[in-house]
Each structure stands twice: as structure tokens, then as C-alpha cells.
Amino acid sequence: MKTNILVECPELISSVKIGVLDLLENREGCNVKFKRTSTITKHDILWSDVVISVRGCEKASLKIIESANRAGRYTIMFLDDDLINIPLDLDSTKYYNDQKLKKYILEILSKCQILWAVNPKIIEKYSKYTISKRGILGKVPMKIEIEKKEWTEPLKVLYAGSIDHKQTLQKIINPVIKKFDEIINNKITFTFIGANPEIEKTKHYNYFQNYESYKKFVIEGKFDIGLAPIETTDFYKSKYYNKFLEYTSIGVVGIYTDTEPYNLVIEDGINGFLCKNNPEEWYLKIKELIEKPFKIQKIIKNAQKQVEKDYNVKVVSDEILTLIPELIKYKAEEKNIKNIRLENIKLIFYMERIQLLMRIYGLKSIIVIPY
Q: How far apart, in whole angstroms, are the C-alpha atoms of residue 313 and residue 340?
């Protein structure tokens, strides 16, 4: 008899799709069902043996986990960001810096058996809040979409990341691009997805809401180099090295800030490049690849071998099922609908969202809430 796993999150974001669903959907021993937080009912809890809250930080998620606990379900929090300590200068800060949300994150953790995370710093900080005081360090799987076989001028440089990184790009990458002014669109091009540094002679595309559309775009773009500058604060050190996996999967050689999490997996000059957050270092590295493009093929070959070996879905899912055997072995003892109480989650979800917007925007929320 298979273990039924209910995965909840407000939206089907990449953290859900790549971090959890891709690992579990095709494994024997478990049935996996994703539902948006606002649509979950007590019948979903009744169906489940295991309930996973992905980045749970709202009252509705807390109510779902509490209900699952009362019904004897095995509860897990999946975190791939330090949501409690997001920097104050980011566009997403207004949302995650809300004191109620921070309180809900800790409350959800306290109602979960374990914390499943992708960075050891998150486990070190937050596993102590769980029922078992346990944290499980997992990987995110990735498959190779393109094998890099050749390059043609101009060399195509890609940056893909959220709007939160705009200031970092303007500080580190803007000065770099200015130095290439005379050869832009001749020997080199720059494309930005998501964050827009507003640099002349570069292309910008809004962030793709659909992950498959994003992958299709970057595959068809046939990029050569990927940029991944990040700040060196504790928040960014608690992130995952997903850009290494994403860039490698599409045949792109990455240049990364020499800090955690990237220097946990990148060997400079072997499977990518590491640079201090000094524009001159980034300029010299890109210049070197323009002059010696054969290095791109060598580095990407090493990186793709590593991803195929250590990050294929079979290897990663085997690891997580070994670390969390409950995903295929746990069976809820009682499946009596009378013992499963769950309030109107849709009402809770939207009422809390309205109250959040009122706390953030004050009188302006009259305009924001209908939108």
C-alpha cells in the first residue's frame, strides 16, 4: 500500500515542482498530490499520510499542518530560503518582513516532525524548532537539456534571477558591461531575465511565471555564459546553488560570486568560475572567455558530468527516501473523517492576505487589494 503525500503551497512555484514533486512523483511506494493552500479541505487531510508545507508562512498553512497533526499525519516543512531574515532592501521584504508571517513560520515548524532543507545553514538555524529537532539536508535534481558542442560569435551572456537582485547587478555587472561597450552586439551580447539593471545595449525580459516556458526560452537562446552575482551576507549564504544546476543543464558556463553556497560546489576553473564581488574580476573573466572561448566547452563538459552523476532525479530521490523513509513507509493509523477538523481554509487564506496588505500599504491598500 502506497504512502499518500499531500504537498501544499500558495502557488505551484519552482520550489514545489523541482524541489519536491520531481523527486517523488514517479517513485514506487508513494502517491503525491499538490494542492494550492487556499483549496485544501479536510478531505485532502483524510486522504493523506504525509503532509509537506513548502515555504509555509501563512495562517492557512499553519491551520493545515495543525489539522494534519491532530489526525496523526506525518508533517514536514520544506525550506529553500531563510524567510525570516530576508534583507530589508529587497522588493519582497514588505511581504516577508511582516512580523505575523515570521511568527507563523516558527509556529509551522513547531508543528512539523522534521525540517527538509537544501542548505546546511537553514538546518542549523531552524531544525531546533521542529518536534523531533531534526533537519534533513537534501539536493534538488536537474537533468541536462543541452550538450554544449560549439559556439559562434557573438558570445551570449545570460543573467536569470528575481527583481530582488537589481541593486547587485547595478553595482557589480553594470560597470563590467560598460567596459565592453565597443564590442556589445558584435562579439558579445547580454540578456537579463527578471531583474532589470537598466543598462543600455542589453536585452531584458520579465520573469517567467511558468517554469517550462522559462526553460524553453533559455534553451532556444543558446547562451554561452551565465552570471550569478550575489551579496555575501548570511541570508544569501543560506540559499541554494540552483543557478549552477540551471545554467549547467542548458549548456551554459557559470560565473559565480566566490561565497557560499556557490563555493560549496564550484571548483574555480573546473566546473565554473568564482569571482569576488569586484567588477574588475568579473570583467577580466568574461574578457578571458571572449579571447579563449574553447574554455567554455571544457568547463561545461566537466559541470554536466557532475550534474548527470550527482544530481539526476534517481540519485537525488534515492537519497531523500533514505533520509526520510516516512515518505514511503509512513501510514496514518486513523483515517476517520470525524477526527479531522479543518476550518474554512479559503476564507482564512484570503482574509489574512487582505489584512497583510493593509498592514503593508495602509490607506493605499484600498487600491492594492482589488488588484
A: 34
**Cβ-count burial of 342 within 10 angstroms (0-12 exposed, 13-18 middle, 19+ buried)?**
buried
Contact by Cβ (8 Å): 231, 82: no
Strands, DSSP E only, in the chain? Answer: 3-9, 30-36, 50-54, 74-79, 114-117, 134-137, 155-161, 188-194, 203-205, 225-228, 253-257, 273-275
Q: How far apart are CA 161 and CA 168, in angstroms?
A: 11
Backbone phi, then psi, for 86, in 5-degree steps? -65, 135
The mean pLDDT value for 325-348 works out to: 85
- Give the pLDDT confidence of 138-158 residue by residue, as tens digits: 999 999 988 766 677 899 999
The DSSP bridge partners found for residue 74 are 50
**pLDDT tens digit string along 293-307?**
888 889 999 999 999
The per-residue pLDDT for 337 is: 65
Tens of pLDDT, residues 27-67: 999 999 999 999 999 999 999 999 999 999 999 999 999 99
HEC secondary structure over 109-165 = HHCCCEEEECCHHHHHHHHHHCCCCEEEECCCCCCCCCCCCCCCCCEEEEEEECHHH
* Distance separating alpha carbons of residues 177 and 159, to the nearest angstrom: 12
Strand 50-54: give its sheet, edge to edge. Answer: 30-36, 3-9, 50-54, 74-79, 114-117, 134-137
Residue 162: what pLDDT? 81
- CB burial class (10 A; 0-12, 13-18, 19+) of residue 133? exposed
Of 51, 156, 58, give the one whose Cα is nearest residue 112: 51
C-beta atoms surrounding 79 within 10 Å:
29
Grid cell 547587478 is found at 169
The dihedral built from the CA positions of residue 216, 217, 219 and 220, taken in this order, carries a sign that is: positive
Helix (H) or strand (E) holding 216: helix 211-221
Question: Please, are residues 236 and 167 in contact by the beta-carbon 8 Å criterion?
Answer: no
Question: Cβ contacts of residue 184 below 8 Å, gap of 6+?
Answer: 177, 190, 201, 202
Give the pTM: 0.89
